[in-house]
Amino acid sequence: MTQVVEQVECIYQEVVRRNPGEHEFHQAVKEVLESLVPVLTRHPHYAEHRIIERICEPERQVIFRVPWQDDTGRVQINRGFRVQFNSALGPYKGGLRFHPSVYLGIVKFLGFEQIFKNAVTGMPIGGGKGGSDFDPKGRSDGEIMRFCQSFMTELHRHLGEYTDVPAGDIGVGAREIGFLFGQYKRLTNRYESAVLTGKGPSWGGALVRREATGYGVAFFIDEMLRARGQSFEGKTCVVSGSGNVAVYAVEKIHELGGKVVACSDSDGFVHHPAGIELETLKRLKEVERRRIRDYVEIHPDAVYRHGGRIWDVPCDVAVPCATQNELDGDAARRLVSNGCLAVGEGANMPTTPEGIKVFQEAGIAYGPGKAANAGGVSTSALEMQQNASRDAWTFEYTERKLREIMKEIHRACHETAEEYGRPGDYVLGANIVGFTRVAEPMVAFGLI
Ligand code: NDP
Ligand code: 2IT
Q1: What is the residue extent of each domain of the chain?
Q2: Do the first three CATH levels of 60-192 and 212-372 match, i.e. the same topology?
Q3: Distances (CA, A) of 322 to 31, 102, 171, 337
Q4: Are 265 and 259 in contact (CB under 8 A)?
């Protein structure tokens, strides 16, 4: 065991050395590697095949210039990325993020997480991620379209339904997927539906894909609560963010009997003790593309705290759905001292390592993103299935499938944690399930 701990530490140090300055990537790798010590002890052949070292090195990374013209006629230059991390289980699959903070380290952490998340879903999809440091805030539809067209003009060479299938993430929703798909179709002269997911339902998109990540995280938390003999009924919940994942987490939590009292954006948060009004949230964010502060104009009994920390709002269930490292050790301690019983991550890596430690030591139910938010990519895989069979399923049928998938992900993570002597440790469970599912085909394929 100690020898394996040392081996894993050496691998981690080498990852840090080879990928300087990519802090988020280092953080994601460290968390996974720490969980794998018991698996490597039990299955030494993974170390012999150097599976971990291979998994930490992306199969391919593409970085490209994205030139475009803004509405004033000025030429703008952004940087585009696609990291094709691992294709042991299927074509690379993972979203595109458009946000000014995007750099290689963010894309690599997201791509690395995606490998294990996608494996945990049990669907035939590899892991990848992409995006750009383009900031969509305040840009017109015309500017967004021109940016997407330029981005796809390079990216299309690297995609294909059997090669790499992107979808949305922060700053990329159905509007952007539409512009990206249109440009792919034009450049390739192929109506290759399954080259992108998150499409509109009128042109090959799966019903429920829009809702899937938010619904999925609510289903996963519901499973964690049930495993402890509890439910959402009557629980006060806080959901950070107010984007795609947050909105549909609120919708499903309300349907399951919980009450979401706060949500946020990068400027501040809204606290509405009567319960966040979903229709207002959808109209403000999806239709009018406004800020969360405007919510209080419509609901004067709610308060807006500019620059405030949403995790100070007392709750039973916390659902971070904004971005990485949004919930640190202090915030975690505050949640625990306020009596929080469960945390389910809609975002990718929203809790810092210190925050995770606080939750685990307090013994609360903590569902890491690579299990809890896997409903989005699972439904993307369901979209690929429908495209392949030229079929279109109903909302009810697709949602039922999503619910089953989330239940199964919970079961696999929960049972694996027990099997390894760490009951209730969903971090360990998800990492081990994901890793072994990727490692097996990697061994079978030989040295590639
Ligand atoms: P959206 O762009 O729709 O919404 C993002 C939300 O998070 C906005 O409210 C945004 O506020 C807030 N946010 C973004 N960056 C920051 C930041 N640096 N600090 C504070 N708040 C921030 O994205 P999604 O809802 O799609 O994604 C949210 C999270 O869920 C991400 O971590 C993403 O990786 C993850 N995820 C998404 C999936 C999907 O299917 N879309 C699937 C699985 C995970 P503002 O408007 O002020 O920027
Ligand atoms: O982080 C994620 O899982 C996503 N952004 C969705 C990926 C996908 O391919 O649907």
Answers
A1: 2-55, 60-192, 212-372
A2: yes
A3: 20, 14, 11, 22
A4: no
pLDDT of 342: 98
Q: From ligand 2's centre to the CA of 128, what distance in Å? A: 9
For 267-312, write each residue's pLDDT tens digit: 999 999 999 999 999 999 999 999 999 999 999 999 999 999 999 9
Which ligand 1 atom is nearest residue 117's CA? Answer: 43
302-348 pLDDT, tens digit per residue, is 999 999 999 999 999 999 999 999 999 999 999 999 999 999 999 99
Q: Known catalytic residues?
A: 129
Q: Is 442's C-beta closer than 6 angstroms to any atom of ligand 1?
A: no
DSSP per-residue codes, 96-113: EEE-TT--HHHHHHHHHH
Label the pairing between strands 236-239 and 259-264: parallel
End-to-end CA distance of the chain: 28
Cα of 433 to ligand 2 centre, how many Å?
A: 19
Ligand 2 atom with the shortest distance to the CA of 168: 5
Task: Report whether residue 214 contacts ligand 2, using a CB cutoff of 6 Å.
Answer: no
**Do residues 358 and 331 lie in contact, with contact meaning Cβ atoms separated by under 8 Å?**
no
Is the pLDDT at 367 greater than 80? The verdict is yes
Burial class (CB in 10 A: 0-12, 13-18, 19+), 205: buried
Write the DSSP symbol of residue 283: I
Could you please state the CATH topology (level 3) that the domain comprising 212-372 is classified under: Rossmann fold (3.40.50)
The DSSP letter of residue 205 is P
Q: Which two tokens stand for residue 110?
A: 């997201």
Tell me which architecture the domain covering 60-192 has in CATH: 3-Layer(aba) Sandwich (3.40)
Q: What is the dihedral of CA 320, 164, 445, 448, to 10 degrees?
A: -100
The ligand minimizing its distance to the Cα of 383 is 2
Q: Say if ligand 1 is within 6 A of residue 216 CB.
A: no
